[in-house]
Design brief:
Trehalase, three-stranded antiparallel β-sheet, binds ligand LLGJG24Q, mainly alpha, 21 strands, 49% helix, EC 3.2.1.28
């Protein structure tokens, strides 16, 4: 049903204005299953060349929708025509009025009919267990804040059972959706109403003295408030002080389905699409009817016609969307909704193709022998670096004019400037990969390409309010670790282009705002409350590019709700960039599981994410000082200080001398080795006076964990789960984060160990390159030069961030410092 409410049917029917009240249509039930309705719709569209008359739309609606049977009248069991209150009102006029009033309750009582429970997909009504009182008239379902006053009235009418049932219905919404929707229809799921649930419970408890009810539901009340405190707050700077207050802020940027026509009219005179989106701050949902959700995605991806599920969602449409959908439903009708794998392959071959969206490009600023080459004394490393630099043009791409002219038929999100891709199956830009790629480009003197990549990413924030995981529409439901501010730092440090900083500083703020408001949780420790971030995708369906895999992972979960949670955690795991690892897999009581089905990414407060955020806040402080804006600079300094304190109090473990992720549920640190544990060193997220000591203790910790004995590099974890971010895989970014982190502490032993680790990694990369003539996405920590494995796709070569990272280490450890071009450092 979701699809129908978000797509062409809704648009065509509601703009035909066949009902006086737009709500009428979205409250109708479907006569046939969703697929058949869609098929009938597209048949009408084809017959009328996409231009049906009002009468033809009316005919379609009358054949395919009906307005009966979803709600039954119900006599509340606890209704009494003469409750106590009547005997206690002395004024006869008021008494008789009150009696009439009370007599209205039964006429407004409804319960959800069994039709809806049996077949929820053909109704917009959200089924709830208990009878409830509706407002009346066109409002035939429950409404959130109306219920607060209704429940007061019910309690005063001694209708405790009905009142309690209504509260329970609303609590069940929080458990299911994490918040209370505006009302009991799926089209209300993108917004809430003023948060009065806690007060409803308070009224009920006071009246019924039902403290057991309170005990059972207190956590759900917390969950609801947490929604408002994390997803609906803004920070206000007043005279240098920061205040947090709430505002209303729906997460959706399309017309309200129940007032679709009216909203289209309201926004019609706005100039561009972004304005029409009525200043929606977060455009996170992925709306493409083929690449993001729906029957085509489901049928094709579960037929598993490609080895790698990403292949399908990277293909372009041969024909327009409607035609593709139409030909899909024709196939479905011809095969009784059960097409064979061969028939699905035929449909894909006819309707999709995999060419023409990205063009190879020779970067204008590419030079085979940039300065760094001349400044490396070691001949083996110099020759290797030259080979490395020669890889950049093979990874450079620009978006083809096909995509710019007809973006709807591609999943690629068009960007203006050429960019470097990771390589292999990753043919588009990736957010956090770009951070290390840009470092490598700057060290290769490819400033124009680096700047273009930063501009592309900045344009994402302007367009979507955040940086998506990668450059495809199916990545729009999540981000990746926030490194944009630090990319700009490297670019500005290298070029001294302060004008670029001035022009873009607000976009950096906007990106950080996304993380600070939509990805934070509050943690209580003793009497203190700390704010820290976690990964938390906004979407609860399988990842389109790993659809088959996600369905399989969550298949054995019992309820649909558990499956939605599972998909959200998988997407949140992908947001972390560590997809996947035991870091996100939890046993119920908090230990690590080695099973992906136990994924609970959102339960974890990750050290690296919070170290990145701390460093970004500190960098913003620095930027505003450069731009001579002291009050803004102070604001970021204060924020950074608060973050540092939270990292110190919640994530640092003095006994083990390292930082750990934190389990929100048990309120305990996860005391396992992950390469991310040491990232606060790199971010400098600790008081200055303990830096050297932390360096020393980190070396002890690495030694104790056996990490320094491994010949290939630092593994992501010590847990062998078969996942690509677990043992024995070693990933470049974390070599650099740990090596540079140790070096920056200044402790002599840490500086020495950093150097040993760096040389080990450089040697491993060189060995691997000589043996395979390729650079890899990940390596094996046990064996020098061996590439990594595991996970849901084969090892990929290229490889953007590996090349950027190794250049950073070569620059630091092998470049002749005396000859290094002045001021052109980025470390
Ligand atoms: O297709 C599966 C997943 O692939 C990506 O993740 C991996 O590659 C990325 C590009 O190098 C890298 O940023 C990430 O850390 C890797 O785990 C993608 O980012 C995921 O979202 C996707 O589901």
């Amino acid at each position: 049903m979701t699809r129908l409410l978000g797509g062409d049917i809704l648009h065509v029917v509601q703009t035909a204005k066949i009902f006086n009240d737009s709500k009428t249509f979205v409250d109708l039930a479907l006569v046939n299953p969703v697929n058949e309705t869609l098929s009938n719709f597209y048949a009408m569209m084809t017959e009328t060349e996409d231009n049906p008359s009002k009468e033809r739309v009316e005919e379609f609606v009358h054949k395919n929708f009906k307005s009966i049977g979803e709600l039954d009248d119900a006599e509340p069991r606890d209704f009494q025509p003469e409750p106590k209150i009547l005997h206690e009102i002395t004024d006869p006029v008021v008494r008789s009025f009150t009696k009439n009033l009370i007599a209205i309750w039964p006429s407004l009582t409804r319960k959800v009919s069994y039709h809806v429970f049996e077949n929820p997909d053909t109704h917009s009504l959200i089924p709830v267990q208990y009878p409830f009182i509706i407002p009346g008239g066109r409002f035939k379902e429950y409404y959130y804040w109306d219920s607060y006053w209704i429940i007061k009235g019910l309690l005063l009418s001694d209708m405790v059972e009905t009142a309690r049932g209504m509260v329970q219905n609303i609590l069940s919404m929080v458990e299911r959706y994490g918040f209370v929707p505006n009302g009991g229809r799926i089209y209300y799921l993108n917004r809430s109403q003023p948060p009065l649930l806690t007060f409803m419970v308070d009224d009920y408890i006071k009246y019924a003295k039902d403290y057991e009810f309170l005990r059972q539901n207190i956590q759900t009340l917390e969950k609801e408030l947490n929604f408002w405190l994390t997803k609906r707050t803004v920070e206000i700077d007043k005279d240098g002080n920061i205040y947090t207050l709430a505002h209303f802020d729906s997460s959706s940027d399309t017309p309200r389905p129940e007032s679709y026509f009216e909203d289209i009219e309201t926004c019609a005179s706005l100039l561009n699409d972004d304005e029409k989106l009525c200043d929606a701050q977060h455009k996170q949902s992925c709306t493409h009817p083929i690449y993001c959700q729906g029957d085509i995605l489901h049928v094709v991806q579960t037929a598993k016609i490609f080895n790698d599920s990403k292949t399908f969602v990277d293909m372009a449409l041969v024909n327009p969307i409607n035609e593709t959908i139409n030909s899909f439903y024709t196939m479905m009708a011809e095969t009784d909704n059960n097409p064979s794998k061969g028939r699905v392959t035929e449909f894909v071959n006819k309707n999709f193709r995999s060419i023409g969206e990205l063009e190879e490009v020779q970067p204008r600023d590419f030079r085979p022998e940039p300065n760094i080459i001349k400044e490396i004394n070691d001949p083996v490393v110099r020759a290797f670096t030259k080979n490395l630099i020669a890889i950049w043009p093979t990874l450079a791409r620009k978006v083809s004019y096909h995509v710019i002219e007809d973006p709807d038929t591609h999943s690629l999100i068009p960007v203006q400037h050429p960019f470097i891709i990771p390589g292999g199956r990753f043919k588009e830009y990736y957010y956090w990969d770009s951070y290390w790629i840009i470092k490598g480009l700057l060290l290769s003197d490819m400033v124009e390409t680096a700047r273009g990549m930063v501009q592309n990413i900045i344009s994402m924030v302007e367009r979507f309010g955040f940086v998506p995981n990668g450059g495809r529409v199916y990545y729009l439901n999540r981000s990746q670790p926030p490194l944009l501010t630090l990319m700009v730092y490297d670019y500005v440090r290298y070029t001294k282009d302060y004008e670029f900083l001035r022009q873009n500083i607000h976009t950096l703020e906007k990106e950080l705002h996304f993380w600070l408001t939509l990805r934070t949780v509050e943690i209580r420790k003793g009497d203190n409350t700390y704010t820290l971030a976690h990964f938390d995708s906004s979407s609860d369906t399988p990842r389109p590019e790993s659809y088959f895999e996600d369905i399989e992972t969550c298949a054995n979960l019992e309820s649909d709700d558990e499956k939605y949670e599972c998909y959200t955690d998988l997407k949140s795991g992908a947001e972390s960039g560590w997809d996947f690892t035991a870091r996100w897999f939890f046993h119920k009581e908090g230990g690590v599981s080695d099973q992906i089905k136990d994924i609970r990414t959102r339960r974890n407060i990750p050290t690296d994410l919070n170290a990145f955020i701390y460093k970004a806040l500190k960098t913003m402080n620095n930027f505003y000082m450069i731009l001579r804006k002291p009050s803004e600079a102070k604001r970021y300094l204060d924020l950074a200080e608060r973050w540092r304190e939270a990292i110190e109090e919640v994530l640092y473990n003095n006994e083990d001398g390292t930082w750990y992720d934190y389990d929100i549920k048990t309120g305990k640190q996860r005391r396992f080795f992950f390469a991310s544990n040491l990232t606060p060193l790199w971010a400098g997220a600790m008081p200055d006076e303990v830096k050297a000591e932390r360096g020393k203790r980190s070396v002890e910790y690495l030694r104790k964990m056996g990490i320094l004995n491994l010949r290939g590099g630092i593994p992501s974890s010590l847990l062998s789960t078969g996942q690509q971010w677990d043992y024995p895989n070693a990933w470049s970014p974390y070599q650099n984060l740990i090596i540079i982190g140790l070096h920056k502490t200044g402790d002599p032993e840490a500086v020495e160990v950093a150097k040993e680790l760096a040389l080990k990694w450089v040697n491993s990369n060189i060995k691997g390159y000589h043996e395979n003539k390729a650079m890899f996405e990940k390596y094996n920590a046990q064996n020098s030069g061996q590439f990594g494995g595991g996970g849901e796709y084969h090892i990929q070569a290229g490889f953007g961030w590996t090349n950027g990272c190794i250049l950073e280490l070569i620059n630091f450890y092998y470049r002749d410092k005396m000859r290094k071009s002045k001021g052109r450092t980025i470390l």
